[in-house]
User: Which sequence fits this backbone?
């Protein structure tokens, strides 16, 4: 992106500790056009009264998170609708920047790398501060959830034994011999082929553009069409298939706590409070259970989110 593409924010929000104070923070506006064609002049409070549109990326977990956001918002009296499966980060971030959606569930480390490819922060608090500085002025990053879901790169137990693989560094022993499978974006992402080359000096025989922790890449790994696959750490299929998650000694993959990204023009107190309440009770273990209900038990993500939100008292009685 050109250096003059976006003004930078200097406000800093640091994780769960900021949750209690979040509702009191003033919203920033840059004359964003709302979904109803109105504009904010920056002189008054932000307003979610017209309702929020929650967008999601095109994989199971992000869809679940989008529906959870909507349930939590409705529980606080905020109207919300969901536009699921819009695409990859390369699609959904421009969508929220352009005002097509108002709210987006994201992942700290990968989101920062989207805006700053040379970012070196890996710890959750550092990432939160860096995101607050890097996001366009029209957007805000709210306190992150307890839940975290990191990109992991896995091999079958057989492949791990055959090549003596325990970490990404061990892949150097197979340099140029293994086939890599993941979403198309992995070809140019730091958490992907770029990172393997720059952090571990590892290249692969072939790259197969499939999906992110989805049926295509997992099917290819089972069949042996790929040797190493990009999955998510909360994916229930990892343990079910006895796949080996390789270690990351050089911290190629930063912390990936779930974090809401919202348009400043609609980030009022009810929105902040609702998402802070959700973030405080949404743990990694709970997120893994929700993924399993959808991916393994084939339940609808909106139903799963609604049931979980009610169980955790996030919805109105």
Assistant:
């Amino acid at each position: 992106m050109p250096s003059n593409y976006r003004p930078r924010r200097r406000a800093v929000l640091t994780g769960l500790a900021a949750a209690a104070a979040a509702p009191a923070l003033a919203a920033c506006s840059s004359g964003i056009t709302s979904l109803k064609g109105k504009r904010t002049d920056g002189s008054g409070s932000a307003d979610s009264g017209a309702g929020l549109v929650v967008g999601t990326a095109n994989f199971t977990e992000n869809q679940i998170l989008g529906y959870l956001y909507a349930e939590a918002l409705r529980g606080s009296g905020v109207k919300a609708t969901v536009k699921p499966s819009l695409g990859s980060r390369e699609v959904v971030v421009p969508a929220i920047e352009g005002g097509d959606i108002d709210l987006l569930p994201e992942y700290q480390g990968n989101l920062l790398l989207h805006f700053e490819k040379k970012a070196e922060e890996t710890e959750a608090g550092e990432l939160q501060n860096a995101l607050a500085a890097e996001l366009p002025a029209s957007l805000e990053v709210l306190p992150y959830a307890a839940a975290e879901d990191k990109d992991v790169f896995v091999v079958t137990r057989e492949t791990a034994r055959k090549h003596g693989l325990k970490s990404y560094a061990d892949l150097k022993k197979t340099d140029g011999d293994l086939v890599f499978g993941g979403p198309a974006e992995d070809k140019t992402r730091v958490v992907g082929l770029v990172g393997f080359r720059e952090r571990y000096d590892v290249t692969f025989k072939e790259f197969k553009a499939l999906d992110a922790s989805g049926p295509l890449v997992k099917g290819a790994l089972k069949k042996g069409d790929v040797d190493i696959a990009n999955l998510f750490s909360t994916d229930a299929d990892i343990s079910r298939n006895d796949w080996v998650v390789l270690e990351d000694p050089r911290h190629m993959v930063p912390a990936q706590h779930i974090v809401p990204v919202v348009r400043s023009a609609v980030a009022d107190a009810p929105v902040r409070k609702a998402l802070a309440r959700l973030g405080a009770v949404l743990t990694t273990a709970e997120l893994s259970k929700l993924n399993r209900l959808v991916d393994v038990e084939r339940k609808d993500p909106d139903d799963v989110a609604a049931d979980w939100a009610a169980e955790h008292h996030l919805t109105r009685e």
In short: The longest strand covers residues 258-263. Confidence is low (pLDDT under 50) at residues 1-45. The longest helix spans residues 60-75.
